[in-house]
Amino acid sequence: MLRALLHYFLIGGLLFGGKALLDRRQSDGPEITVRVPLAASQAEIDRSTREAILLNETRRHGWDRRDPIVYSHLVRNMRFIEPESTESDSELYRRALDMDMHGHDPIVRARLLYRAREALAYVPDDRMPTRRDLVEYSQENAERFEREGSVRFQQVFLSGSKRGEALAAEASAMRDRLAKLEGASPKGLGDPLPGLRSEQSATPSKVRAEYGDDLASLLEEDVLGVWRGPVSSVYGLHFIKVISREPDYVPSLDLIGPEVRADLLRDIREELREERMDALRDEYTVHVERLP
Amino acid sequence: MPRSLIASLGALFILVSPACSNDDGGFVDRPGRCSDFDELRQVYWGDTHIHTELSFDANMQGTRTTQDDAYAFARGEPITLQPYEEDGTPTRMAQIDRPLDFVTLSDHAEFLGTIKVCNDPEAMGYESRQCRDYRTAQEFDATAEEVGRSFVEINGFTAFPPDLVRYPELCGPDGVFCIDAGMDVWGDIIEKAEAAYDRSASCQFTTFPGYEWSSGPASRNLHRNVMFKDTNVTELPYSYFDEPYAEDLWARLKEECLDPDNGCDVLAIPHNTNLSDGIYFENRMADGQPFTAEYAELRLQLEPVIELYQHKGASECLPGESNSDELCGFEVIPFATLAATNLNRITPPNPKGFLRYAYGEGMKLEDTLGVNPFEYGITAATDTHISAPGLVAEDDFKGHGGAGQPNRFLPAPVGFPDIEYLSGGGLTAVWAEENARDSIFSAFRRKETFGTSGPRIVVRMFGGWEYPDDLCSAEDLAAQGYAGGVPMGGRLGTQVGEGGPKFVVSARQDPTGAPLQRIQVIKGWLEGGEQQIQVYEVAGEPDNGASVDLNTCAPLGDGASDLCSVWEDPDFDPSQRAYYYTRVIENPTCRWTTWQCSAADYDCSEWNYEQCVETQTSSGNSYLCDCCDPAAGLNVEWCEAVDCSDPTSLPAAEARCCVPRVETSIQERAWTSPIWYQPPG
Predict the structure, then answer these.
(1) What is the ipTM of this complex?
(2) Is the pLDDT of residue A68 over 90?
(3) What is the DSSP string of B163-214?
(4) What is the rounded CA–CA span in Å between residue B102 and residue B45?
(5) Backbone phi, psi, residue B243, to 5°
(6) Which residue has the higher pLDDT, A67 or B178?
(7) Is B437:B206 a contact under the CB 8 Å cutoff?
(8) DSSP B291
(9) Which one of A68, A132, B181, B434 counts the least CB within 10 Å of its CB?
(10) CB neighbours of B33 closer than 8 A, spacing ≥ 6?
């Protein structure tokens, strides 16, 4: 949804950006009056001024008349006021605009300010972190982005609850059977346990959380391609064959880009927001009116 | 950058290039991207009810930890807990022993903007009286009275009736200051959820943006947690102040998220129906009229699951109802409303606020409307207010704040860190193909979920008509389960043959928890227009003799590490609506209160209740006071001589024999989502 809206604003921006530039040639910049409570502090006045400028900008460019959220909100308001109305949404919307509902509704106001702030914080191409920036950042903070390596293994399980006293003897028989399997799949051997699979990929820490230390430790040993065990867990006995092992790794930037970029962009956005707001403020002539 | 270009927002957008619009890096969250993908699904653990410093109540209770901290905690990192020293040094820490797989942070939507306004010197509203009171209450040397006053003054708005509810005055006309600020906070929430989501093939951690809609007219809880599938979200986190009726909230979510057909998906999770004083499942819409089919459809669409258990108690069933379910008393708290819980004021809970009632009423509504609005799947959560998702261990209980004891003030708690009736809360588990947003969220949608009271008991349930009796021995149980029927949360198809439906239920214990005692299937059905309940023991040994040593908390007796059964309903009537859910029961273990008392050094012969009340007011709790109070269930033998027919006539200490008691030992458990049966036609 946000991307669609961004494109929507892009079109609005293209149309009205040109107009704004043209307007600026004809005057020294917009002039607005900001009304604040009598006892408003300087910080409150500054805040009100910034908001008034942003709202003025959104209205100058007609965003209050074209935003889809504003549209649906105003239609909803009208349907609440006139529940019996049979007019179409667009007709109700037109009448809401005639009533200047968009100028006074707090949701509309919040929506416009939000979009304006988002626009202020928009990061242009030349300020976007480059791949090199991200690589450098992820290398400098590698431990933050590192993932535990996983192990692909086959497993045969014998349930202590089901087999009771016969467990040890049946484990011995299973060991012999597995030794004869060679490369064949163990599917169909052993007992079911909810969530246990005959072949899976998992990190040792995940296995440790599910089945305990003994099984996890066996997985961590550097032995591939042979059936090992049994090792015990609270559930019974497990035989394991490790098929492959992946070491700990830092995923490629294609995958963790958002994580890395989120940290960097937070700072960049803040900087841009301030830069652009200051520039806008310089363009405006603001009169402050204190109200009792 | 040339000034002429940046001087208008319109010009700013000229710079926007669709190709570089924002930060997804071209990532597509396609199914099968995780290295452990399994089409037969696996279990993932999560917590969908978490508060941080962004929630007003948590904030007032001294919680200083952020959403980033909560995500880190869920991944297994330690977190600091209040009370803090004046220089910010924490006096307590917490850490979970196993990371969670997914979380939804659900800070209260009502005050996201309020906190920001009151902390931002440039904000309109910053100098309001309410904000000044708030900041006074935030000072290190604030008194309990100052904190209490500010809390009531602001949080009290959530207890207004829906037709009168509004933003606090500090938010300005129509709440505009707080709506503005709240929208910024919502943007940050989404950004943080996005950054914490693991997109690598390891798929170690999944996040869902969310918030809590906190309606509590007259303190009767109607809260819901809103959980989005991904960062495709509504523009505002709609709060009780914006949308005072649940159906208005659903309408918003439908209109802005579900209807546009742009991939947005959202659900609302009801919780603490036990504290609604019986109104949560009332057959009454905002206009006072009974449900319509349209209303029921919308409710079912937006609310597929319910949070059955959390730190403010269980909402499954109430002991003493017209059924013989002896296990209904588990963690039922003796309060009817949120305020009663906040004030620790004993009030009898209303049976109409419990899920069993809702399931019965839902079937009746389906008879008349054709839709069951209460066809809920089951989840559980912590509702932590200290940014500590998944902190559920009975032997490491810190108190979750919220309605409980805040632990804001120094010294660090000695004695119980929370009201004895509250608990550590639970966890949600889902059966999903992989730990990725689409997969986990789909599990919620189809209700292939179960809740636990904390332990990671794994349970699987399938229902069908023709499962073989030896299915429990089949290594491909899950494949046969799906092929021959439906998983938990599903609806049974048309009856096949003459017999009743068959259910295969399979469970394994938490590897670090207690063994299992038994598996039960709870059946509810409509007969003569009324709900009937039957509890069937289907696996394990209800009388296995297991217990726990209350002095040491050492477990006694044996249990099963895993249990499985294929069970056929012997009393099935194909003309009756019915539901079936599974309850897996552990052997007894110590409740947190008993754990803390077993580790403490005290002598109940020195217990003096009046002195304890006085000491509590001036310098906090003590184990002597907490553990010897009969409410903790341990020092109760002398109570046999106390006549509770008129507790008000008794000396204060003896009157403590007459208040509800917590269980000294509990049987932790898991609850599956039900499988439903609808008669033909």
Answers:
(1) 0.85
(2) no
(3) TT----GGG-GGGHHHHHHHHHHHHHHHHHHHHHS--STT---EEE-EEEE-
(4) 7
(5) -130, 95
(6) B178
(7) yes
(8) P
(9) A132
(10) B199, B201, B203, B434, B436
Phi-psi region of B177 (alpha: psi -120 to 50; beta: other; left: phi over 0): alpha
Give the distance from residue B478's alpha carbon to the nearest chain A alpha carbon, in angstroms: 8
Nearest to B250 by CA among B304, B184, B288, B183: B304
Residues near B376 by Cβ (< 8 Å), separated by ≥ 6?
Answer: B270, B303, B304, B305, B306, B355, B358, B359, B447, B673
Q: How far is CA B447 from the centre of its chain?
A: 16
B180 contacts A51? CB cut-off 8 A: yes
For residue A24, what is the nearest residue in chain B, using CA coordinates? B4
User: Is the Cβ–Cβ distance between B18 and A28 less than 8 Å?
Assistant: no
Helix (H) or strand (E) holding A218: helix A213-220
Question: How many of the other CB atoms lie within 10 Å of CB of B55?
Answer: 29
* Distance from the B122 Cα atom to the nearest Cα atom in chain A, whole angstroms: 4
Q: Which of B513, B389, B394, B425 is nearest to B101 (CA)?
A: B389
Cβ contact B578:B533 at 8 Å? no
Across the interface, whether the CB atoms of B25 and A254 are under 8 A apart is answered yes
Could you tell me which of B286, B275, B352, B346 has the C-alpha nearest to residue B311? B275
Q: Are A78 and A85 in contact (CB under 8 A)?
A: yes
pTM exceeds 0.90 for this model:
no
Cα B425–B387–B76 angle (5° rounding)? Answer: 85
How does B643-678 read in b/e, with b if 16+ C-beta sit within 10 Å? Answer: eeeeeeebeebbbbbbeebbbbbbbbbbbbbbbbbb
pLDDT range class, residue A24, cuts 50, 70, 90: very low
On whether the CB atoms of residues B448 and B659 are closer than 8 A, the answer is no
The vertex-B218 CA angle with B137 and B212, nearest 5°, equals 65
Q: Cα(B568)–Cα(B581) distance, rounded to whole angstroms?
A: 13
Q: Spell out a b/e string for B459-482, using b for 16 or more CB atoms within 10 Å of the CB, else e.
A: bbbbbbbebeeebbebbebbebbb
Max distance between CA atoms of chain B, in angstroms, equals: 88
Model confidence pLDDT, tens digit, residues A210-247: 999 999 999 999 899 999 999 999 999 999 999 999 99
Which tokens go with B179?
């709506």
Contact predicate A66/A80, CB 8 Å: no
Angle (nearest 5°) at CA B62 between B59 and B64 = 70
Residues within 8 A of A (CB atoms), B 182-221 only:
182-184, 187, 191, 194-202, 204
Is-contact B231 B194, C-beta < 8 A? yes
Closest alpha carbon to A142 in A271, A42, A251: A251
For chain A, give every residue range classified as CATH 3.10.50.40.
Answer: 151-245
Q: For residue A39, how many other CB atoms are within 10 A of its CB?
A: 9
Give yes or no for a contact between B496 and B677, defined as CB atoms under 8 angstroms apart: no
At B26, is the pLDDT very low, low, confident or very high (cuts 50, 70, 90)? low
Cα-based torsion angle of the residue sequence B533, B534, B538, B540 in order, rounded to the nearest 10 degrees: 90
CATH of segment(s) A151-245: 3.10.50.40
Q: Least CA distance to B431: which residue of chain A?
A: A195
Gap between the Cα atoms of A12 and A18, Å rounded? 10
- The answer to whether the CB atoms of A17 and B10 lie below 8 A apart is yes
CA distance A78 to A278: 38
Question: Kind of pairing, strands B449-452 and B669-672?
Answer: antiparallel
- What whole-number distance in Å separates Cα of residue B551 and Cα of residue B607? 18
SS3 assignment, position A67: coil
Chains A and B form CB pairs within 8 A to the count of 268
Q: Under DSSP, is residue B83 helix (H, G, I), strand (E, B) or coil?
A: strand
Q: Is the pLDDT of residue B23 over 50?
A: no
Using the beta-carbon criterion (under 8 Å), do B25 and A257 form an inter-chain contact? yes
Out of A124, A125, A161, closest to residue B560 by CB: A161
